[in-house]
Amino acid sequence: MDAVTPEHGLLPRRRIKSLEIGRGLAALAVVVFHANTSARFYDGPSVPWLNVTEYGVDFFFLLSGYIIYHAHQGDIGRPGGVGSYLKSRTFRLFPVLWTVVAAVALLRLTIGNTTSFSTLMMSMFPYPSLEPPLPQVVWTLRHEMLFYAAFALLILSARWGYALFALWGLACVAQIIASIAGVPVTGAWSLPLSSYTLDFMIGMAIANFHSRRHFAPSYGPLMLGLALLAGVLAITHIMDFGRDDFWDYVSVRATVWTLVRGLAFGLVVHGLVCAEPLVGERNPFVSLGAASYAIYLIHTPVNSILQRIAVYIPDMLLELGAGHFFLVGGGVLAGYILHYGYERPVGIFLKRKFISPTIHKP
């Protein structure tokens, strides 16, 4: 998802640099998390407090909710805009996703591991499931796809779209209450009822709030949001308030505490938007944000390869974190190459060929 802001209802729209930076840092956090958890494969040190970097995915969901609502607010209730919206989401998500999934499947084949047809399909076309996709980071796209589909209804009909989001949000809150009571909905239905869904809605609410009210440029709200987030993440780590396992959507920690983190990340998103006018035009982290989707998708396959090379790093350097830097640097570099060498040019070509600029008439 691109961080954009509307200009008189015309496309293309300029990026919101502060949110691009946020996307870049969210992707980097996830790369760091997987580098840290991979340390055991090459006898490197694992740093316990770095485990909180896995919550970069929470931040992604907040940013996605804000960006999609902000970019397409003018399309809400205008059915004619749904075609361009669906095309833009399709061209954004699938070309690089299909490429990475196919590459990983072929890589597995070279070492004698086959990939089932069902796994390929659930990976190339993410739908609600508790089965592991390929690569596993694709699980977040299951949530993204549900959100994009719901937002498409919002474009087709504001009344029905807002009604759907209201009912969906209430169902997620009911799931939180049911989780506390020990009787949550389980199985595949626990995915759409996840508190991650509320992250998207929090992002949408913040975007709506900013569309109605102007804030003076300031780093103050961002500093406050970061301080609160640091406290929430510290408590998460100290009290072990993370999910029970990778596919846990129903524990109290996976429901209540995901919502708490989402609210904290929401303040950070608000702060980033308030700080937008203060961000320099050439901030290097903006390019990291542009490549964030490619980095996110490719870093785990690259990680699995680099682990085998990291075993040759001297122990003294491993103790200083050389293994972490090697895996993180390799994952980010691969993402940059994938983005600028493939994702970006393909995306530009597809948008120019199939998406016409949308003009909203008064």
Overview of this protein structure:
This protein is mainly α and 362 residues long. The protein has one domain (4-354). The chain has 13 helices and 2 strands, in the order ββααααααααααααα. The chain has helices at residues 17-37, 56-72, 82-110, 117-124, 139-156, 158-181, 196-212, 220-238, 252-275, 284-290, 292-310, 315-319, 322-354; strands spanning 4-7, 10-15. The protein has a two-stranded antiparallel ribbon with strand order 1-2. A hairpin with a 2-residue loop joins strand 1 (4-7) and strand 2 (10-15). Helix 2 (56-72) crosses helix 9 (252-275), helix 3 crosses helix 13 and helix 7 (196-212) packs parallel to helix 9. The protein is globular. The chain starts with a strand and ends in an 8-residue tail after the last helix.
- The DSSP helix count reads 13
Main β-sheet, in a few words?
2 strands, antiparallel
Shape: globular
Number of domains: 1
What would the average pLDDT be, to the nearest integer? 92
Protein structure class: mainly alpha
Rg of Cα set = 20 Å
SSE run: EEHHHHHHHHHHHHH
Span of the ends, CA to CA: 27 Å
Helix content estimate: 55-70%
Strand content: under 5%
Low-pLDDT stretches are 4-13
User: What's the quaternary structure here?
Assistant: single chain
Total beta-strand segments: 2
Spatial ordering of strands, largest sheet: 1-2
